[in-house]
RNA sequence: GCGAGAGUGGCGGAACUGGUAGACGCACUGGACUUAGGAUCCAGCCCUGCUGGCAGGAUGGGGGUUCAAUUCCCCCCUCUCGCACCA
């Protein structure tokens, strides 16, 4: 055995050994308890970054630990391989996205292997493999059949830089989530998945996922945005038609003095037709539509509107009120029309002030004597209160009135209570090449025709010439586009949009359970064993996006009979970012640390150890080269402990806990068992790897302490051997290479992975004497040592007899004495 | 604006159900070994005072509950994240 720890000479050896022995490959085994551990799979961008290293190190500790605890652990890895960077890189480097992607996968796989992660590589796949995305096309067809996939013309988020459409979830603060450029609104024909059909269930289950972080659930709840309200009908003054609004404040209906509708509202052109203001209105609409979404969202856009020239009738007052087009009304939410109540809505209040519209107070605060006067209002009163100026409804509370007014209108067919969601359908069309083709054919005679299942897959052609603009080459790829209509046999044209790559990541976790299955997407006999994922680990950035889509998709697949679970991920751990010099590591900031260089300099174990030790997983991790060196130093200390004492350790027989020991060895024996308990709890229950590591460091320090003053004791080496072996087993999930090497150097021939996780004995945790803190009036004054089994009375007596304590009490009689067993005594005088 | 989370030494962070605040590591200081060490080992290391041992003050600030508060409650300040004209 080398005297010096040198990771280079051991890491590769053990990686090859694990692979040769197929130690990470698993099969379903109904006789064993399963555990499905998954980390978010990476996009093959070229190289692994520190965020990945951290994510996968956390997962690997859990996987290795639970294997030693006897569970049948599925721990797979694959590639989220479709996506735009491949296209952009291919254009730049004059290569093909497929080649670029698969080359990156090869390199990144080698990086992951160098880090020693315990993946079952036999299950690996990439989502751009035809054998994967073909099943996604089948899902699309089944969803199409059920009306869950549909096409419509809609105003959508368009990113000019990426030359494609984005889903609402993919627009962050009005900018593209990928390239950060402003997004504009564009009307296009688009395919949607009807996620809104599942809004209620998606929301419902956010209250049934105790293993998820509260804030992720809150974010999803906000995103779904359920609100209870009413749909109310305002007939047009002209008599031919009506405007329906959604409102959560039906109680304020008597105060609705005008109407605001969205520029995109279908009635707008009709309402201004033939009126004197027609051309002004049309101009206004054009301007409003062109406004960037980023401005609209950032509240930069001034609130503006224009009178359409038409009126509608307030259904309870019977008064005619003007209809305005307003740039802040969103067509996508509710009905695209808002009843404006300036006295009780701040936005309407400002709008009314600007255009000289009437303000009518209909709610007064509960404790007010008189209703406030409209002309004295400086701001809208938006809270609930008591109704005034509202005919028969006056005197009701807001809550009562919401129901009563809606019911009153419902009788006339002019209203109903309803539930409104903020969530909108998931737009999945992407005008890009490197994605899964949408299996649809357009025929002049038959219209939109789904590709028959027997004709799947629709293979993405590889013989394409990429366009420098980034626009998809598919529409101009004649052999792909031109096809035959499956219904009439006449000429047909293929859909050239591809699917959003979030579709692939919405079911990959299920496919890992049966990766080679080729007669269907999922083999329920195997998938049923492994699903759901017991623990999912990844970045918080997917709190809404990927994690919401996946939940939706699982419910759809369940309803199709492909899955028998309601939710994909039982427990979720969202790990923090890797930070350097106070900022997230990124190329543009120039603060990236390359994992390869770190592995080269310190070895994989050190890199893993540092990632786990520097902070708890859910917090951000500040990268520190000195911290990395500290981690390396600790591994060296462990190494030397074994290397320098190997002969003596090998000769000793592990202490069995039976014979009596001198105090200092009993201390070590106890420390060993305390450490086993602490590490087991920290890794297994709390995921606090940093404190688990700290505990092992304490044990190692303790061992060095004992070696400082060699007592020449016969019992030393047996007890030491117990401590050393425990140490090796406890760190093995964290730093597997050095653990494997040390384990074998202790004379074992079987992998450390196959050892049972060490157990602590509770009797070994007990010490004969305990230290008790003595306080007087809550201030620490002395420490006493008492037998562990001393009664409260005895402890109290000993404390009161303590000379220091007597001094502090100085003759006074204690008013009260609190005794906390094994902890402290507090004397109140 | 709304929602969530967080504020502890020079730094990263401990303290699981209220019970010795600062485990463990980094940095720093001193010493040992050494031709030398940026290797290793040992010791010190929150602040203030006489400086041995103590005493007092410290967990963003203020108040409260309690024998006892980093931990529970109220108010305020700061930071981070998410949502943001949602009717």
**Order of strands across the biggest sheet?**
2-1-24-25
**DSSP helix count?**
27
What is the CATH homologous superfamily assignment of the largest domain?
Valyl/Leucyl/Isoleucyl-tRNA synthetase, editing domain
What count of domains describes the coordinates?
5
What distance lies between the first and last C-alpha atoms, to the nearest angstrom?
63 Å
Beta-strand segment tally: 32
What is the mean pLDDT? 91
CATH class of the largest domain: Alpha Beta
CATH topology of the largest domain: Isoleucyl-tRNA Synthetase, domain 2
Biggest pleated sheet: 4 strands, parallel
**Estimated radius of gyration:** 34 Å
Q: What is the 3D form?
A: globular
CATH architecture of the largest domain: Alpha-Beta Complex
Task: Kindly estimate the percentage of residues that lie in beta strands according to DSSP.
Answer: 15-25%
Helix content: 25-40%
Element layout with pairings:
Blueprint: H1 8-20, E1 34-39, H2 50-68, E2 72-74, H3 84-93, H4 97-114, H5 130-145, E3 149-159, E4 164-166, E5 171-172, E6 175-176, E7 184-193, H6 199-205, H7 214-224, E8 226-235, E9 242-247, E10 258-261, H8 268-272, H9 278-290, H10 293-297, E11 305-313, E12 320-326, E13 337-340, H11 346-355, E14 363-364, E15 386-387, H12 398-411, E16 415-421, E17 426-427, E18 429-430, E19 440-443, E20 447-450, H13 478-481, E21 482-484, E22 491-494, E23 498-499, H14 508-511, H15 524-530, E24 533-539, H16 545-560, E25 569-575, E26 578-580, E27 583-584, H17 595-602, H18 604-613, E28 621-622, H19 625-643, H20 646-651, H21 663-686, H22 689-708, H23 716-731, H24 736-745, H25 762-765, E29 769-776, E30 779-787, H26 792-801, H27 803-809, E31 816-820, E32 824-828
Parallel strand pairs: 1-2, 1-24, 10-12, 24-25, 26-28, 29-32
Antiparallel strand pairs: 3-4, 3-7, 5-6, 7-17, 8-9, 8-16, 10-13, 11-12, 14-15, 18-23, 19-20, 19-22, 21-22, 26-27, 29-30, 31-32
Helix pairs in contact: 1-24, 2-18, 3-4, 17-18, 18-19, 19-22, 21-22, 21-23, 22-23, 23-24
The chain binds one RNA strand of 87 nucleotides through α7, β9, β13, β28 and α19.
């Amino acid at each position: 055995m080398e005297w010096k720890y040198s990771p280079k000479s051991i890491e590769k050896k053990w990686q090859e050994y694990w692979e040769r022995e197929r130690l990470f490959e698993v099969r379903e085994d109904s006789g064993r308890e399963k555990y499905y551990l998954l980390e978010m799979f990476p996009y093959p961008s070229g190289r692994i970054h520190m965020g990945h290293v951290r994510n996968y190190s956390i997962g690997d500790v859990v996987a290795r630990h639970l294997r030693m605890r006897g569970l049948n652990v599925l721990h797979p890895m694959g590639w989220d391989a479709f996506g735009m960077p491949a296209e952009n890189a291919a254009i730049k480097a004059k290569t093909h996205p497929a080649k670029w992607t698969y080359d990156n996968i090869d390199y990144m796989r080698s990086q992951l292997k160098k880090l020693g992660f315990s993946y079952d590589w036999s299950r690996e796949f990439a989502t751009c493999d035809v054998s994967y995305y073909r099943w996604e096309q089948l899902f699309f067809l089944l969803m199409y059949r059920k009306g869950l996939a549909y096409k419509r013309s809609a105003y959508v988020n368009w990113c000019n830089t990426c030359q494609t459409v984005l889903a609402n979830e993919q627009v962050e603060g009005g900018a593209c989530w990928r390239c950060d450029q402003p997004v504009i609104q564009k009307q296009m024909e688009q395919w949607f998945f009807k996620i809104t059909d599942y809004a209620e269930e998606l929301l419902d289950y956010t209250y049934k996922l105790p293993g998820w972080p509260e804030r992720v659930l809150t974010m999803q709840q906000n995103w779904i945005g359920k609100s209870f309200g009413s749909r109310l009908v305002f007939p047009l003054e002209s008599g031919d038609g009506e405007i329906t609004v959604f409102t959560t404040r039906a109680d304020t209906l008597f105060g609705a003095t005008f109407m605001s509708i969205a520029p995109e509202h279908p009635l707008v052109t009709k309402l201004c037709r033939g009126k004197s203001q027609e051309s002004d209105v049309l101009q206004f609409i054009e301007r409003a539509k062109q406004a960037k979404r980023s401005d609209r969202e950032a509240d930069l856009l001034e609130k503006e509107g224009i009178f359409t020239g038409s009126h509608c009738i307030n259904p309870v007052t019977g008064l005619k009120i003007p209809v305005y087009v307003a740039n802040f009304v969103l067509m996508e939410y509710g009905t695209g029309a808002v009843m404006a109540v300036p006295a009780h809505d701040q936005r309407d209040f400002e709008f009314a002030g600007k255009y000289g519209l009437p303000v009518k107070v209909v709610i007064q605060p509960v404790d007010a004597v008189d209703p406030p006067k409209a002309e004295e209002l400086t701001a809208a009163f938006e809270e609930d209160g008591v109704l005034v100026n509202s005919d028969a409804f006056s005197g009701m509370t807001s809550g009562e009135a919401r129901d009563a007014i809606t019911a009153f209108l419902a009788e006339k067919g002019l209203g109903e209570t309803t539930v409104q969601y903020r969530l909108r359908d998931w737009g999945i069309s992407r005008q890009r090449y490197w994605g899964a083709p949408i299996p649809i054919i357009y025929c002049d005679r038959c219209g939109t025709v789904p590709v028959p299942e027997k004709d799947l897959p629709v293979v993405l052609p590889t013989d394409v010439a990429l366009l420098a603009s980034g626009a998809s080459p598919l529409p101009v790829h004649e052999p792909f586009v031109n096809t035959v209509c499956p219904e009439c046999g006449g000429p047909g044209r293929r859909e050239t949009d591809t699917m959003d790559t979030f579709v692939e990541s919405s079911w990959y976790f299920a496919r890992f359970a049966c990766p080679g299955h080729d007669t269907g997407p999922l083999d329920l006999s195997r998938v049923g064993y492994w699903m759901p994922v017991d623990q999912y680990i990844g970045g918080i950035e997917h709190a809404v996006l990927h994690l919401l889509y996946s939940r939706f998709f699982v419910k759809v697949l369940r309803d199709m009979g492909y899955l028998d679970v309601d939710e994909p991920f039982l427990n979720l751990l969202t790990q923090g970012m890797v930070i350097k010099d106070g900022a997230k590591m990124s190329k543009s900031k120039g603060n990236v640390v390359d994992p390869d260089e770190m592995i080269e300099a310190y070895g994989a174990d050190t890199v893993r150890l540092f990632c786990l030790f520097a902070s708890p997983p859910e917090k951000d991790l500040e990268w520190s080269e000195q911290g990395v060196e500290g981690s390396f130093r600790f591994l060296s200390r462990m190494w030397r402990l074994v290397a320098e004492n190997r002969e003596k350790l090998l000769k000793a027989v592990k202490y069995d806990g039976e014979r009596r020991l001198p105090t200092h060895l009993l201390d070590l024996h106890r420390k060993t068992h305390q450490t086993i308990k602490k590490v087991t709890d920290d890794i297994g229950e709390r995921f606090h790897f940093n404190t688990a590591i700290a505990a092992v460091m304490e044990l190692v320090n303790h061992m060095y302490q004992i070696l400082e003053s060699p007592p020449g004791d016969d019992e030393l080496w047996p007890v030491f051997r117990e401590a050393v072996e425990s140490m090796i087993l406890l760190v093995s999930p964290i730093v597997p290479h050095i653990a494997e090497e040390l384990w074998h150097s202790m004379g074992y021939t079987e992998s450390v992975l196959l050892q049972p996780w060490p157990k602590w004995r509770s009797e070994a945790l007990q010490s004969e004497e305990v230290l008790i803190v003595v306080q007087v009036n809550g201030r620490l004054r002395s420490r006493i040592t008492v037998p562990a089994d001393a009664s409260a009375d005895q402890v109290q007596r000993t404390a009161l007899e303590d000379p220091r304590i007597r001094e502090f009490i100085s003759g006074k009689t204690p008013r009260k004495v609190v005794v906390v067993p094994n902890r402290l005594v507090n004397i109140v005088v």
